[in-house]
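Much of what follows relies on a compact textual record of a protein's fold. A record is reproduced here so that you can trace the correspondence yourselves:

. . .
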Amino acid sequence: MPRAASICYVRGCTKKTFYRGRCEEHAPPAWETLSARNQVQRSVSRAWDRVIRPKALTRDGFACVHCGAREGLEVDHIVPVARGGSWTLDNAQTLCASCHAQKSARDRHSR
């Protein structure tokens, strides 16, 4: 059975409730889906995909810098961001999937 409509909690407002006892006008703003830190992270990673990644691929001749493979290429941070690496072209390198997996394993074990 549906709940009976109630009146907004805000003093003087006689509108029907919409959210947690408040009308649409007095409802609190919706929470952001991303924190301020994650919003910055998302904008940086978008710039990585749009600007840095294509430049790194072009600079490295569309080939893995370790083995020279031309398929399954990924752009990797030389120094991981979690360890103080930057989101710049200087910290980017082109690796094939297998070389990238090996480098990531080395990075995890060298903590």
Remarks:
- The CA atoms of residues 19 and 29 lie 10 Å apart.
- The chain has a mean pLDDT of 84.
